[in-house]
């Protein structure tokens, strides 16, 4: 057995958020520093809600890498026992240009190669991979051969136990083409029990962005649950027992469009562990995402339980 409730696997970076909005980086004069990477942010978001979370990733042997480990443990309460250190590669950086704030431009520094792509199955406890209540992976891992092989090996160890979550995480910059992504991602549906994605990500994974058709195809692949993030139309969840429900979005003044999906993911994990019904799980996830959209940062601005409950109460009173 493991003391952890959630293990995520994937990217990590030091994120630098432009403090000036609606201008190019040439005009930006100051940044705020935090940690980032989809799977890392999900672990942070879950930990903020009281989940015992860890992330399996790797940093460089440099000051940024030491900052990541320190921030995970001492600022965000994420277990860093599986955060390795590459002796040669540098910790990645990501600059967020809030131009526009709703759809920021991200400039990645991951050359010649990010340390987190060099993870090996031997660098994580296999008992934890098998037994942790939630095992979370992003589909972008399969864009790199070594990273994909490591995830495939861990999924074999996991043996499709509940809850094995695939974040469909379509990032075009990591792939040669949508066809390449589809070819790599679709076979992985046979190895997971839950998939989460937006319309474009579902199009890559199952060949359609129509919410109901995509949900049907995901469940037909043997999943227990499919979650469709629909932007301005809210979120839909479908389960193998026939539950299919949608909830509307929250309308917010967007400060930064980054991190909302990761906040949703962390809240989703919290809801699974709390035993929430499907509708409540996505209501909480929607609220978490809206809160982060109204704030500048990702990791630092992930909501607390009180933040989410207050927003839900506001909607109920209106």
- End-to-end separation: 45 Å
Subunit arrangement of the protein: single chain
Helix-strand string: EEEHEHEEEHEHEHEHHEEEHHH
Task: Tell me the helix content.
Answer: 25-40%
CATH architecture, by name, is 3-Layer(aba) Sandwich
The largest sheet has its strands arranged as: 5-4-1-8-9-10-11-12-13
Please report the total strand number as a whole number. 13
Main beta sheet: strand number and arrangement? Answer: 9 strands, mixed
CATH superfamily: Ribokinase
Low-confidence stretches: none
The overall pLDDT, averaged over residues, is 96
Domain count: 1
Verbal overview:
The chain is an alpha/beta fold. It has one domain: Ribokinase (UDP-N-acetylmuramoyl-L-alanine:D-glutamate ligase), CATH 3.40.1190. Helices cover 36% and strands 21% of the residues. It has 10 helices and 13 strands. The strands form 2 sheets. Strands 5-4-1-8-9-10-11-12-13 form a 9-stranded mixed β-sheet, with helices on both faces. Strands 3-2-6-7 form a 4-stranded mixed β-sheet. Strand 11 and strand 12 form a beta hairpin. Helix 6 (199-206) crosses helix 7 (211-220) and helix 9 crosses helix 10 (305-317). The model has no long low-confidence stretch (mean pLDDT 96).
């Amino acid at each position: 057995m493991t003391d952890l409730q959630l293990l995520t696997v994937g990217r990590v970076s030091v994120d630098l958020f432009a403090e000036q909005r609606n201008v190019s980086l040439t005009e930006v004069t100051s940044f705020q520093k935090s940690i980032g990477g989809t799977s890392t942010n999900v672990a942070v978001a879950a930990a903020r809600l009281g989940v015992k979370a860890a992330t399996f990733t790797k940093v460089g042997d440099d000051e940024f890498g030491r900052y990541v480990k320190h921030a995970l443990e001492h600022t965000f309460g994420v277990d860093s026992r599986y955060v390795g250190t590459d002796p040669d590669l540098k910790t990645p950086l990501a600059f967020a240009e809030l131009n526009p704030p709703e759809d920021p431009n991200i400039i990645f520094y991951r050359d010649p190669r990010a340390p987190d792509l060099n993870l090996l199955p031997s660098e994580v406890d296999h008992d934890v991979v098998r037994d942790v209540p939630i095992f979370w992976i992003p589909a972008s891992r399969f864009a790199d051969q070594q990273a994909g092989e490591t995830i495939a090996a861990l999924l074999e160890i996991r043996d499709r136990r509940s809850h094995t979550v695939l974040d469909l995480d379509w990032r075009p910059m990591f792939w040669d083409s949508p066809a390449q992504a589809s070819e790599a991602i679709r076979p992985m549906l046979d190895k997971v029990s839950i998939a989460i994605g937006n319309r474009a990500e579902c199009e890559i994974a199952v060949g359609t962005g129509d919410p109901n058709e995509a949900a049907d195809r995901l469940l037909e692949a043997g999943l227990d649950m499919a979650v469709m993030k629909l932007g301005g139309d809210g979120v839909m969840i479908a389960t193998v027992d026939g539950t299919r429900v949608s909830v509307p979005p929250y309308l917010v003044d967007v400060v930064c469009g980054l991190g909302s999906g990761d906040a949703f993911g962390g809240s989703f994990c919290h809801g699974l562990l709390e035993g929430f019904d499907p509708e409540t799980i996505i209501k909480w996830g929607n609220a978490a995402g809206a809160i982060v959209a109204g704030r500048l940062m990702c990791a630092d601005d992930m909501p607390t339980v009180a933040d989410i409950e207050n927003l839900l109460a506001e909607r109920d009173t209106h």
